[in-house]
Design a protein that fits this description.
- With 223 residues, this protein is of the alpha/beta class.
- The chain has a domain at 84-222: tt1808, chain A (Alpha-Beta Complex).
- Helix content is 35%, strand content 17%.
- The protein has six helices and nine strands.
- It has helices at residues 7-12, 45-54, 84-106, 154-162, 169-185, 209-221, and strands at 3-6, 19-20, 62-66, 80-81, 110-113, 128-132, 138-144, 189-193, 198-202.
- The chain has a five-stranded mixed beta sheet with strand order 5-6-7-8-9. A two-stranded antiparallel sheet has the order 1-3. Strands 2-4 form a two-stranded parallel ribbon.
- A hairpin with a 5-residue loop joins strand 6 and strand 7.
- The protein is globular and about 70 Å long.
Length: 223
């Protein structure tokens, strides 16, 4: 008997490892853009992800089937990649398509799309978008880099930025392109991924000096 896969099961499945080809690119694909704004970890992100998943009433609609026993070839990668378009194709197949199916089956009101299908007047080319449905406005913008190039090591750049006396320069350059997309498109959320590592970005409004002093004054008046 084959094993039924539901939307909930789809979301729980980890991504298979990429298969990198022997002649893969070694080029740094980061744009010469640096994010110079306030930078801080997204507090409570992982617990909020878990709550979103656990608090949802998942449907029982069957999306597809897997073999009950024995090898499950569809859960592994069989395509070798060597550059950004190759990795992007695997991300699309393993993330964008499955989550668009899940969102459709569960009535979540979004799907994935590429920038050319929704941003014909925008000169820059983000790698993927999350689109609200049915009004087809953009909810989230995403950018992808290959995971094996040294400058693209997101985790290492975060550790370097967090280390006492460490530098935020590499991390800020990594975030420059996605931050520019978010600012240009007026979006609160962005995703920077290498398939192996991902940074989820949230843009929060800044406050003026007058706002801050007013706030402190009211705190003082309240005792």
């Amino acid at each position: 008997m084959p094993k039924a896969r539901t939307a909930k099961g789809y979301v729980l499945e980890p991504l298979p490892d990429l298969r990198r080809g022997p002649d893969s690119t070694k080029s740094n694909a980061l744009h010469p853009i640096r994010f110079d704004g306030w930078l801080a970890p997204w507090d409570g992100f992982i617990p909020s992800v878990a709550r979103t998943f656990e608090n949802r009433t998942w449907g029982t609609q069957i999306i597809d089937y897997l073999p009950q026993m024995g090898p499950k070839p569809s859960l592994n990668e069989h395509v070798q990649v060597g550059d950004e378009p190759g990795v992007q194709s695997r991300f699309s197949d393993r993330v964008e398509q499955p989550l668009s199916i899940v969102a459709s089956c569960e009535g979540m009101g979004f799907f994935f799309g590429d920038s050319k299908s929704f941003l014909s007047d925008y000169k820059k080319v983000p790698d993927f978008l999350i689109i609200k449905s049915p009004n087809t406005s953009i909810a989230v913008v995403g950018e992808l880099k290959v995971p094996w190039v040294k400058h693209h090591k997101l985790g290492q750049n975060i550790l370097l930025a967090e280390r006492m006396g460490g530098s935020e320069d590499n991390l800020r350059i990594c975030l420059g392109q996605i931050a520019q997309y978010m600012q240009d498109l007026g979006l609160k959320y962005g995703i920077l991924t290498t398939y192996n590592e991902t940074i989820f970005v949230r843009q929060r409004g800044s406050v003026t000096l007058r706002q801050a002093i007013l706030h402190v004054a009211l705190l003082g008046l309240a005792g």
